[in-house]
Write a structure and sequence with these properties.
Largest sheet: 4 strands, antiparallel
Distance between the termini: 50 Å
Number of domains: 2
Order of helices and strands: EHHEEEEEHEEEEEEHHH
Strand content: 15-25%
Radius of gyration: 26 Å
Structural class: alpha+beta
Length: 255
């Protein structure tokens, strides 16, 4: 895997620690596992990259989650401009029979009274004397795409029965896998070195107060380096701040 601008390899960070702590190279295997846990600990909150995948919809209106899925950021379909039109999260969708091919049949009950069989508005529409208008801030201007619910236990996304598309676009946080070549932003290099230094001695039985103080000192060093890394990794760009202020101004005007 080639080098990436603004990133450094995990192996480079481990070698930096080995040289700085004057340890033999055969400790690399142990230190890699420590660094891997540190990458998980920091990456989940800060620098994990979001993966985008286009997945097929199963016959029972479910979508199988990727094996490295941790959490979603967007779930939806594309429009004509290549933008993601997000589905609405629907906690009322049942996980019952979501791994069975006849899930749709098992989760339908046509014997219930259906309000939608009558041709009148409900909940949010009202007649102003000329036509119907939306009330209480209900958004308009586009069709209802669909709704979803994530079943983490069974590893699927549930879709409403009327979902018409044969695919689903998911942007999600992916978990790292051991054995692959990993990179972290260079801003986190020193924080990961501090993490390795702390965990390298954290589980060794301390026989003196000096040893305990050393562990606590390294722990404090890690959290301080992580704080500095976060500040450097997420700087404030004037253009983003300007766009954010304009968006908030538009929302205030609408409200």
């Amino acid at each position: 895997m080639g080098e990436k601008a603004g990133y450094c390899r995990i192996d480079e960070v481990i070698n930096d620690y080995i040289v700085q702590s004057e340890q033999p190279n055969h400790k690399h295997f142990k230190l890699f596992h420590i660094a891997f846990r540190g990458m998980e600990q920091m990456g989940l909150s800060f620098f994990y990259k979001i993966r985008s995948v286009k997945l097929p919809v199963n016959a029972n209106k479910t979508v199988t989650l990727p094996h490295d899925y941790i959490n979603y950021s967007k779930v939806g379909v594309f429009n004509s401009n290549g933008e993601v039109i997000c589905l609405k999260y629907n906690d009322k969708l049942s996980t019952f029979a979501d791994l069975l091919p006849d899930r749709q049949i098992k989760t339908e009950d046509d014997s219930l009274f259906n309000l939608f069989q009558f041709n009148f508005p409900i909940f949010y529409n009202w007649w102003n004397g000329y036509n119907f208008q939306n009330l209480f801030g209900i958004p308009s201007g586009g069709p209802f795409i669909g709704s979803f619910k994530v079943d983490n236990t069974n590893g699927v996304i549930l879709l409403n029965q009327d979902f018409i598309y044969d695919y689903l676009l998911i942007e999600y946080v992916a978990s790292p896998k051991e054995g692959e070549d990993y990179y972290i932003p260079i801003q986190f290099r020193q924080a990961l070195i501090a993490w390795i230094g702390w965990q390298d001695i954290n589980f060794i039985a301390a026989k003196t107060h000096v040893a305990n103080a050393n562990v606590n000192m390294r722990r404090h060093d890690f959290f301080n380096e992580r704080r500095l890394a976060i500040a450097a990794y997420r700087p404030l760009y004037l253009q983003e701040a300007f766009e954010w202020s304009l968006e908030n101004e538009r929302l205030c005007i609408k409200s």
